[in-house]
């Protein structure tokens, strides 16, 4: 699945978003063609699950009579090979995006697949279509290569466990390619559907609406099928269908909300949304003194933390301050502040739209606004939510044509 949303960072690690759904990169694996590649902790779940399926079910059926240690010795590399095939899928999205002039910030693998995060959204329907189709086509190609490798290994008399592992990984890649082509967001098929509607109607927003609606319907159908399997057939595989269905419904809903936010933010500048001249917390000030003189009486729930020169260096919230024990009242403010990544700095004339897909820093701050090296404003998640609500109100009050 390709993810055309701005990058965001939080207290530690890197975050990516699936159209408004944030996901943390817990472990950075390195760089491929200059693109940072990492994994979310949840990828361990799928690795363990695949290794267990291969070692306990697939290999014993294909080549019975071997010891459990042999099966596991083959199953673990098979799980890693599957992970590598997911990386190839996301790498294909990234490669086509780069070829079409889009920047790629990162690739993240997680329990249900991967995310290639783009710097910006495709400018044309054809680019959108090309980027979306690249992943499933690559999975089909990888599946074909692995099937060919299995046939070759069999023809030269390789052990049955090796042949079975290659064939199973090939078949799984083929299944994933077909599943990803289902026409509903956030699957690649949903992106393809969006691009086709966009191409036909000339309206990207309409394509978004169709794809997210299809994704929610598809998710509900899969979840329902999972419940039916679990109740009427007593098959635990229904739990997996329920998980996938729930994920599709949740993510498609998040995409729909993200689209509404993007539409509300269109044409709006940061200066129009920001809280002007917010109260700041000097980094060197004692926590107890700042709480007594500022935080306890302020209407703000978050405070930019500034250095000696007035430059922003972090964020501290009321929630964090309330958790400070009395014994630390004399500590400096910066000892409890969240570091401020460069991504969270904005200028007054910057557009608001890139903030819409960002994970709020410290749970609330979307941007600290700087001009002439000093803090002049702050944008919070509450400010963005208010913008969306006001946009809805204006739409309701707009005169309807007769």
Outline the fold blueprint.
Blueprint lengths: L1 E2 L4 E2 L4 E5 L2 E5 L1 E6 L2 E5 L3 H20 L5 H32 L4 E7 L2 E6 L6 H31 L4 H21 L7 H14 L2 H29 L4 H29 L4 H4 L1 E2 L4 E2 L4 H9 L6 E5 L5 E6 H5 L15 E2 L5 E2 L18 E7 L2 E7 H17 L5
Parallel strand pairs: 1-8, 6-7, 10-11, 14-15
Antiparallel strand pairs: 2-3, 3-4, 5-6, 7-8, 9-16, 11-12, 12-13, 15-16
What does this structure look like?
With 402 residues, the protein is α/β, with parallel strands linked by helices. The protein has 3 domains: 2-181, no CATH class; 204-265; 270-390, Roll (CBS-domain), CATH 3.10.580.10. Helix content is 52%, strand content 18%. It is built from 11 helices and 16 strands. It has helices spanning 43-62, 68-99, 125-155, 160-180, 188-201, 204-232, 237-265, 270-273, 287-295, 318-322, 381-397, and strands at residues 2-3, 8-9, 14-18, 21-25, 27-32, 35-39, 104-110, 113-118, 275-276, 281-282, 302-306, 312-317, 338-339, 345-346, 365-371, 374-380. The protein has a 5-stranded mixed sheet. The chain has a 4-stranded mixed sheet with strand order 9-16-15-14. α2 (68-99) runs antiparallel to α3 (125-155), α3 packs antiparallel against α4 and α3 (125-155) runs antiparallel to α5 (188-201). The longest helix is centred in the N-terminal third of the chain and has 32 residues, at 68-99. The radius of gyration is 25 Å and the shape is globular. The protein starts with a strand and ends in a 5-residue tail after the last helix.
